[in-house]
């Protein structure tokens, strides 16, 4: 994972302009510019140190394991959200699609008695298909992603409610859908398969963004869509693929959610849309596209959960958790703006 | 109560506006028919002359509690020859959709509204409805102030909390209590959240310390319920009333205090999430989870020991009673009245537990199952 922290989000030639910066500020700026995940990583480490000093229980491996488990669902969604935001898009429907997929998986097993593996594939297919709808509306009908996903947010939520009739679905342990809840012990760290699955998702998508032509094209489209088109990149295909990769990430998130909930619940994951965007923004990915790395979003999601957990351990009113997250978002966007401004 | 003439005149002014907004809504029916003063179901589609129009406006349709209201209201509407229109907010706290639904009920000429209100912001619209002569019944939770509705059909949420609190205190049998409080929200004040939380504490024999806010009780001290003993409040965490929220909240509470042995959950999904967290931590045997709702799946959780006790409520009964009250009233019957000694019509609550304890009236899960709701 750490290798991705070092990855560059901008093409190499830009570095020539930033060569040998004179002042300390410029030097910091240069480093932050080259490594978008660095500033959130610093915040994460600082937050962890402070909370460890405030409460000895924070640093307990059991507690850190819990934070990892709590972050797995939003962390997975954030992979999809990052890829979409890198194209200068945004997905407001990402959580709604996840809830739909997780309910579908659970109901196919509980009500239709299908094997878990079939239900899992069906859930993944629906998530990817739903995201393909988003992608096609963006590329074929040329609607802004914000508007498209605002609309499909309602559409997918309604389909979920009609399908679920408000009922939760419980699954038996042992079903493959519950596999993500199984514990894996690494020393004293009690992770779940869901956490490992999320890490694998980051590795795969992080690698693809960094080392494949598809990844480079995605950054190019996000940075300047016209330039990318002139350079011969099939812009629509790249955009559509971003949403479908998003669909794949959603399917992973839905699988992990089923494990955490113990089945399907139309009320679980309701805040996931904004939480995934929050993680991406805090993680240093620019909402204007073309700049950022997926691992930043994992760090962003971890920062949020570390604050929620740390403040809860300190016995502080939950409202301050919300306040802290809000301030973090504004701080993260300010850093992004600062980095861009000094550049120009 | 408005007289029929004032009803008619106020309705007429409303009609004018409605007509101006959209004659198309009337779909070919004459304007006179749309605004007919018998107020029967509106649109030409349902036009039976003896039908009474009633609007059921729910918080959301993503919760089986409200879905159960919808189902029982529909059944009752069939029996009472009522034309029922169902609307719901998109999420908890969605007042705007509810206001629109209230305005629609007024323009449609409904005789009454049944509403589980999403918050104080709908009050002005409800007052408009009352002025236009509609009979307003609040379901589940009284609006604030309660006079915003003509009457409230609800469970006594505080009483429901009290029942599980008393059971929790008795079950402790004098042992120290380390309590996790899993509430609904931290960002909105909702009466059901406060009433259930405070009821539980009162049942335990702990002073909530405030009438209007959660978390104001002393963090440790003595509880006087059951045999009495010492208590510690380990945490107050919001759950959004959902399974994943309940799980995350419980995990954080357990990290803060691994000795928790009593869990209060605002509703069954939050309790289920809490149980998942306890099970993952290998603590489910030593911790008692208390929930409120009374759904059929919740009662199964009582049988299996997932919940130590559950206070049951009857949402379907509230809705069905509401529909028939408005039907009777519209056909010349009398207004419904509140339960003796309470400010609302109490549809009842009961304590359900697998084990009965001395001095407490307890239903077994199988006894309670005949009146449960949901799946």
UniProtKB/TrEMBL annotation, chain A:
Keywords for the protein's UniProt record, in alphabetical order: Cell membrane, Membrane, Transmembrane, Transmembrane helix
Residue ranges of the TM segments: 37-54, 116-139, 146-164, 184-209, 238-258, 295-314, 320-339
Classification via CDD domains: TM_PBP1_transp_AraH_like
UniProt membrane topology term: Multi-pass membrane protein
Database matches in InterPro entries: ABC_transp_permease
Origin: domain of life: Bacteria
Localisation per UniProt entry: Cell membrane
One Pfam family hit: BPD_transp_2
PANTHER family: ABC TRANSPORTER PERMEASE PROTEIN YPHD-RELATED-RELATED, RIBOSE IMPORT PERMEASE PROTEIN RBSC
Name by which UniProt lists this protein: ABC transporter permease
UniProtKB/TrEMBL annotation, chain B:
Subcellular location field: Cell envelope
Gene3D superfamilies referenced in this protein's UniProt entry, alphabetically: 3.40.50.2300
InterPro entries for this protein: Peripla_BP_I, SBP_2_dom
Top-level taxonomic group: Bacteria
Protein keywords: Signal
Keyword Zinc: no
Keyword Signal: yes
Domain Periplasmic binding protein: 55-332
Pfam families, per database record: Peripla_BP_4
Record-stated family: Belongs to the bacterial solute-binding protein 2 family.
PANTHER family: D-ALLOSE-BINDING PERIPLASMIC PROTEIN-RELATED
Record's protein name: Substrate-binding domain-containing protein
Species this protein is from: Streptomyces cynarae
């Amino acid at each position: 994972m750490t290798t991705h922290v070092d990855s560059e989000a901008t093409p190499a030639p830009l570095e020539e302009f930033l060569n040998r910066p004179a002042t300390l500020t410029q030097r910091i700026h240069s480093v932050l510019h080259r490594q978008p995940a660095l500033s959130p990583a610093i915040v994460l480490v600082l937050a962890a140190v402070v909370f460890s000093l405030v409460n000895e229980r924070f640093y307990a491996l059991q507690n850190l394991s819990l934070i990892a488990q709590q972050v797995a669902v939003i962390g997975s969604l954030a992979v999809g959200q990052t890829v979409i935001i890198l194209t200068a898009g945004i997905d407001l429907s990402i959580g709604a699609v996840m809830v739909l997929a997780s309910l579908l998986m659970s109901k196919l097993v509980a009500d239709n008695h299908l094997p878990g593996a079939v239900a899992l594939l069906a859930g993944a297919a629906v998530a990817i298909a739903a995201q393909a709808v988003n992608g096609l509306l963006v590329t074929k009908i040329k609607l802004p992603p914000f508007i498209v996903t605002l609309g499909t947010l309602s559409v997918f939520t309604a389909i979920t409610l009609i399908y679920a009739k408000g009922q939760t679905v419980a699954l038996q342990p042992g079903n493959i859908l519950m596999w993500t809840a199984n514990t894996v012990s690494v020393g004293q760290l009690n992770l779940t398969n869901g956490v490992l699955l999320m890490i694998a998702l980051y590795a795969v998508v992080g690698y693809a963004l960094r080392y494949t032509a598809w990844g480079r094209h995605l950054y190019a489209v996000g940075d300047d869509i016209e330039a990318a088109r002139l350079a011969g990149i099939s812009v629509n295909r790249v955009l559509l693929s971003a949403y479908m990769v998003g669909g794949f990430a959603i399917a992973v998130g839905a699988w992990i959610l089923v494990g955490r909930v113990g089945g399907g619940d139309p009320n679980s994951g309701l805040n996931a849309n904004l939480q995934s965007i929050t993680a991406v923004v805090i993680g240093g990915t620019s909402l204007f596209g073309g700049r950022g790395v997926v691992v930043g979003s994992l760090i962003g999601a971890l920062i949020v959960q570390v604050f929620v957990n740390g403040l809860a351990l300190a016995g502080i009113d939950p409202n301050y958790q919300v306040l802290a997250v809000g301030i973090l978002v504004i701080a993260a966007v300010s850093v992004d703006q600062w980095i861009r401004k000094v550049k120009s | 109560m408005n007289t029929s003439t004032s009803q008619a005149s106020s309705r007429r002014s409303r009609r004018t506006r409605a007509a101006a907004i959209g004659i198309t809504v009337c779909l070919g029916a004459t304007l006179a028919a749309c605004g007919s003063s018998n107020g029967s179901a509106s649109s030409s589609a349902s036009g039976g002359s003896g039908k009474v129009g009633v609007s059921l406006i729910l918080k959301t349709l993503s919760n089986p509690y409200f879905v159960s209201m919808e189902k029982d209201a529909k059944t009752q509407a069939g029996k009472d020859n009522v034309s029922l229109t169902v609307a719901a907010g998109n999420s908890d706290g969605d007042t705007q959709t509810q206001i629109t639904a209230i305005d629609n009920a007024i323009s449609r000429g409904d005789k009454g509204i049944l509403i589980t209100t999403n918050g104080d912001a709908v009050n002005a619209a409800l007052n408009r409805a009352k002025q236009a002569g509609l009979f307003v019944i609040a379901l589940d939770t009284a609006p604030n102030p309660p006079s915003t509705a003509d009457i409230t059909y609800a469970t006594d949420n505080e009483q429901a909390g009290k029942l599980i609190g008393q059971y929790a205190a008795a079950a402790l049998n004098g042992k120290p209590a380390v309590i996790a409080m899993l509430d609904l929200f931290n960002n909105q004040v909702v009466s059901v959240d406060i009433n259930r939380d405070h009821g539980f504490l009162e049942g335990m024999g702990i002073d909530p310390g405030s009438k209007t806010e959660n978390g104001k009780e002393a963090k440790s001290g003595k509880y006087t319920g059951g045999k009495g003993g010492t208590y510690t409040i380990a945490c107050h965490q919001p759950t959004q009333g959902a399974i994943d929220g309940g799980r995350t909240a419980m995990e954080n509470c357990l990290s803060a205090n691994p000795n928790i042995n009593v869990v209060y959950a605002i509703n069954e999904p939050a309790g289920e999430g809490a149980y998942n967290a306890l099970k993952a931590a290998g603590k489910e045997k030593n911790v008692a989870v208390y929930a409120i709702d009374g759904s059929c799946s919740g009662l199964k959780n009582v049988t299996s020991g997932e919940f130590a006790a559950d206070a049951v409520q009857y949402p379907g009964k509230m809705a069905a009673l509401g529909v028939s009250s408005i039907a009777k009233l519209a056909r010349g019957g009398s207004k419904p009245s509140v339960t003796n000694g309470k400010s609302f019509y109490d549809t009842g609550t009961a304590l359900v537990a697998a084990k009965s304890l001395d001095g407490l009236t307890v239903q077994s899960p199988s006894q309670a199952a005949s009146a449960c709701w949901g799946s």
